[in-house]
Task: inverse folding
């Protein structure tokens, strides 16, 4: 037994050395690897050897790295724990691959190892879906939950620790998670992190910052840590009554938690000055007594914060902050920031500010793109008096209004654009001018019109023309877009086969499910022939006959395979933005959908679209209605790849045309995309949304049922408008798409 | 003794409790006076049926309600011959009776009916206002007191359950959505006698479930579900249990969603 074990080890060692040699390790390196292995405990050493041998088959360079990590980890972990740790690493390597493995073994800081050792805590991963639904329900906002070192929010994502193990009981740890989340929610409702301009203007002067936010506010305090800790607890006092009213059940339960946290705090007697005041407030918040070295000041502070509980405004909270801050600094001493409470979390003004700035930047970038493009456009001929003029009424610049002057063109500013420019801090170099300075000359145009004019002379030949809806004009632009049909190039890369293999278990369930759907028996009444007599029909006929009417001849009931008569067209977004996961998910979904539809026998066709500008809308055929699901079709699915932009109108109109030519009782039109319609030119924002919406309405008017599936983390609010109340679904995680889509189809057609 | 009355004699004597959320009563009145039929759009359990009862009471008209299902035939609506003691007798269907009696005919959940059944209401629903009774070879003209109304829940996702344009374009549509918070609270209190605080908590919970529509739930909790829960509570069931069995479980089977909703319940109660 022992002997064969030794033999096995020798074999592993030899194989490892061989692999290292093959990867050009010199003798010295190999020597050092073997020495490292030697130094480990015998049992650990054996496991590590096996691990290294496996790794060396992937890449020898992983071996020394791994050994180093193992050596480090063994400084924190006992032998038993070490064994468990290596086992888990090995498991991860086997089941999740090298990347996950490397990630796991790189987490050998104290905190991570602690997490590894304390698996009895509740991990966020386990409860994140429930928590996310919980806070979305409570807030009505599309908030995300993500793991973070502390609990805080940037107003869009709620960060909470990736595990909580304060309590033995799972329920209590879960309660703690909920408690953290609702405090963040209260802060958002109360405006804690996003004071409006008016509130801020009471404390800041105009010169402080062009766009003051909570971060600018805290710059007013030389001791920022002190101010933030005070603000956090002050706001907790202000908002707690709100929480108690909205979520009485939760707050009742959580109340007892405060005592548990109180126990952990440092005794007040060890603190002095400001630290004692702040700590005193936190202790009072946790239902502690008012005590410690500064009872007088603390008493006053407590009175102040309690007053805030009666529906005070944010402004009053901020006022209180200033007073308490002054009182605290008056006490002297240095401030040791140690006050944070897990469930109250921390306030990170910089994170909030960064997030708000990022949002603003995204808006500005959009505008800048447009303006830069305009500035770089070739100089135009002066506007010709042509067809254009009769469409857009001749306008003259209004003296008081502001316009952009770009290469002699006068461009109107709509509210949105103006907002962008203001946010950006204005546009330099006399590009922005008052109407009065232009004089009566020239006819102002909108940004959209200008962008279009650029292209108006370059019409492409061939292709199919489609109208486009211009919501500003409330009319169609005739034959505005040109669509070209292509057959997608087949590719041999095995994507479909791989998907079939990966989902093989699911597919067989899927097939059965759809098979059932096909066979779903239904009693058809009043049939000319059938399995049984339709008593109702016979009686009625009998009566009719007695009354002298012709009795008809439909007296039977028949078990019917519920006769399906569907034709469905799938239209896939192949724009550049789908690159990566979305594209893959689209393709996987298609593969599954095809399996389902093949077993169901519904007729289906698949097309993809992309393009650039109205002159080149590409429409790719992947499978026509009359085409069987062959290997060529599969190869075309392999070949679905991200291309250019998303001008949705023309491909929708083209799909409608195709569906119109198909005979079927119910015609379904399912689009798969990843968000906003957007083209290189002016097909953006409201314009694109309105045209898409219009194109879908047109389809509906033709008796087609459109259904739009959007993969979008944001679940943006424009979708409802664009797609119409009941005709869409948002999937916030692409990974869910392949499973969801077949379910959606099933629901749609039963 | 059970007291049976004929369908067309079902006149509501006592004022049904109905709290308007907007101008629906005025709109309905003027539609009625102008002989325009009415669609009531909205999710289930938001007061459409109750509204019909109220309007029928207001105008002192009999209310004939027909719940549609996929076996409903045109004869079921219009009428058929029966044999009684060797004689053939014609029996009017509820729709015909409603027309003759000048009543309010309410077709509940119209999309559930077969498409070929739905078309018999078309001539009644446009300005002809007639009902052809084919088997009798007769055409009935509806008196001005007659009103046709249908209910329809646009939230269904099945394309088979969409209302055809040819049907919907004959009607004036009143949009019903959940009553606003204060109103809904009053409704619950009035219907079930629960106290102010309980009603408020129920409404708060409902709001949270409605936030989850399209975020995991097909639909949020309806007023009807709230009333069910409130009834259980007032007969002594513990509020959290009452909400779980009469709101959470009926809303979804998805395990994670059930958990999240239960958490919301226990956070609120
Ligand atoms: N506006 C309202 N006024 C009074 N009761 C209402 C109102 N809205 C809803 N309800 C209550 O909700 C219950 C369900 O409403 P119902 O009319 O049956 O819904 P629907 O017909 O829309 O499915 C009613 O029994 C009633 O108790
Ligand atoms: Mg009803």
Result:
């Amino acid at each position: 037994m022992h002997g064969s074990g030794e033999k096995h080890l020798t074999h592993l060692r030899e194989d490892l050395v061989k692999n290292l040699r093959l990867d050009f390790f010199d003798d010295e390196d190999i020597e050092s690897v073997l020495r490292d292995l030697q130094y480990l405990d015998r049992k650990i050493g054996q496991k590590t050897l096996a691990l290294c041998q496996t790794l060396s088959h992937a890449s020898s360079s992983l071996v020394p790295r791994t050994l180093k990590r193992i050596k480090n980890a063994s400084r924190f972990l006992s032998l038993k724990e070490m064994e468990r740790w290596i086992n888990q690493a090995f498991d991860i390597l086997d089941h999740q691959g090298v990347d996950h493995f490397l990630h796991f073994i790189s987490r050998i800081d104290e905190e991570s190892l602690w997490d590894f050792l304390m698996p009895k805590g509740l991990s966020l991963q386990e409860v994140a879906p429930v928590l996310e639904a919980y806070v979305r329900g409570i807030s009505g906002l599309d908030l995300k939950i993500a793991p973070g070192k502390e609990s805080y929010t940037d107003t869009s994502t709620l960060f909470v620790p990736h595990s909580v193990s304060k309590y033995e009981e799972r329920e209590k740890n879960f309660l703690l998670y909920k408690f953290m989340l609702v405090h963040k929610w209260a802060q958002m409702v109360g405006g804690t992190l996003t004071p409006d301009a008016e509130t801020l203007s009471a404390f800041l002067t105009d010169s402080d910052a062009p766009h003051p936010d909570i971060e600018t506010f805290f710059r007013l305090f030389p001791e920022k840590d002190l101010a933030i800790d005070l603000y956090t607890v002050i706001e907790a006092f202000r908002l707690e009554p709100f929480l108690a009213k909205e979520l009485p059940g939760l707050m009742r339960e959580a109340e007892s938690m405060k005592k548990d946290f109180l126990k952990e705090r440092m005794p007040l007697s060890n603190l002095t000055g400001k630290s004692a005041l702040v700590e005193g407030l936190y202790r009072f918040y946790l239902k502690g007594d008012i005590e410690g070295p500064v009872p007088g000041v603390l008493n006053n502070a407590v009175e102040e914060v309690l007053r805030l509980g009666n529906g005070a405004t944010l402004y009053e909270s901020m006022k209180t902050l200033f007073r308490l801050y002054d009182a605290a600094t008056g006490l002297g001493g240095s401030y040791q920031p140690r006050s944070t409470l897990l469930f109250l979390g921390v306030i990170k003004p910089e994170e909030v500010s960064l997030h708000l700035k990022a949002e603003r930047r995204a808006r500005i970038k959009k505008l800048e793109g447009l303006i830069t493009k305009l500035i770089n456009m070739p100089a135009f001929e002066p506007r010709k008096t042509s067809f254009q003029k009769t469409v857009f009424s001749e306008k003259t610049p209004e003296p008081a209004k502001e316009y952009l002057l770009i290469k002699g063109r006068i461009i109107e500013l709509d509210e949105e654009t103006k907002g962008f420019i203001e946010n950006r801090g204005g546009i330099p170099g006399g590009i922005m001018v008052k109407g009065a300075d232009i004089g009566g000359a020239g006819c102002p145009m909108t940004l959209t019109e200008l962008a279009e004019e650029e292209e108006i002379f370059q019409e492409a030949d061939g292709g199919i023309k489609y109208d486009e809806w211009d919501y500003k004009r409330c009319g169609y632009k005739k034959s505005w877009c040109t669509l070209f049909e292509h057959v997608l190039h087949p590719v041999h890369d095995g994507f479909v086969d791989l998907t079939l293999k990966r989902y093989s278990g699911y597919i067989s369930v899927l097939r059965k499910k759809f098979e059932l759907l096909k066979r779903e028996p239904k009693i058809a009444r009043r049939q000319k022939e059938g399995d049984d007599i339709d008593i109702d029909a016979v009686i009625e006929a009998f009566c009719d006959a007695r009354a002298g009417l012709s009795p008809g001849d439909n007296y039977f009931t028949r078990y019917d395979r519920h006769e399906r008569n569907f034709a469905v067209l799938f239209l896939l977004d192949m724009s550049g933005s789908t690159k990566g996961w979305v594209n893959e998910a689209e393709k996987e979904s298609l593969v599954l959908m095809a399996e389902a539809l093949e077993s169901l026998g519904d007729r289906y066709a698949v097309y993809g679209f992309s393009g650039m500008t109205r002159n080149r809308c590409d429409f790719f055929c992947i499978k026509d209605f009359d085409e069987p699901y062959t290997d060529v079709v599969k190869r075309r699915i392999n070949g679905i790849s991200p291309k250019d932009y998303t001008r949705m109108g023309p491909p929708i109109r083209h799909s409608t045309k195709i569906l119109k030519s198909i005979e079927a009782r119910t015609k379904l039109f399912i689009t798969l995309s990843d968000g906003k319609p957007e083209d290189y030119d002016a097909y953006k924002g409201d314009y694109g949304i309105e045209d898409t919406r219009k194109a879908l309405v047109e389809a509906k008017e033709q008796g087609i049922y459109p259904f739009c599936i959007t993969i979008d983390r944001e679940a943006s609010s424009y979708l409802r408008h664009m797609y119409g109340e009941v005709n869409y679904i948002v999937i916030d995680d692409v990974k869910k798409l392949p499973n969801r889509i077949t379910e959606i189809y099933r629901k749609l057609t039963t | 003794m059970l007291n049976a009355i004929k369908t067309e004699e079902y006149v509501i004597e006592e004022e049904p409790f109905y709290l308007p959320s907007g101008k629906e009563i005025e709109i309905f009145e003027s539609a009625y006076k102008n002989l325009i039929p009415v669609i009531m759009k909205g999710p289930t359990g938001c007061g459409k049926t109750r509204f019909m009862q109220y309007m029928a009471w207001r105008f002192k008209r009999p209310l004939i309600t027909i719940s549609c299902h996929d076996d409903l035939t045109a004869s079921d609506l219009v009428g058929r011959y029966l044999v009684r003691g060797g004689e053939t007798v014609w029996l009017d269907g509820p729709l015909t009776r409603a027309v003759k009696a000048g009543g309010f005919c309410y077709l509940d959940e119209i999309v559930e009916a077969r498409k070929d059944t739905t078309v018999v209401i078309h001539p009644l629903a446009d300005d002809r206002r007639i009902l052809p009774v084919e088997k009798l070879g007769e055409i009935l003209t509806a008196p001005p007191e007659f009103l046709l109304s249908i209910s329809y829940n646009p939230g269904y996702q099945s394309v088979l359950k969409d209302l055809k344009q040819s049907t919907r374009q004959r009607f004036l549509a009143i949009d019903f959505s959940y009553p606003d918070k204060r109103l809904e609270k009053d409704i619950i209190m009035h219907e079930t006698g629960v106290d102010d605080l309980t009603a408020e908590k129920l409404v708060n919970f409902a709001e949270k479930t409605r936030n989850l529509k399209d975020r995991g739930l097909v639909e949020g909790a309806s007023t009807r579900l709230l009333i069910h829960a409130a009834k259980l509570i007032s007969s002594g069931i513990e509020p959290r249990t009452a909400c779980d069995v009469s709101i959470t479980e009926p809303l979804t089977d998805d395990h994670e969603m059930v958990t999240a909703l239960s958490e919301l319940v226990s956070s609120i109660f």
Summary: The first strand of chain B starts at residue 38 and ends at 41.
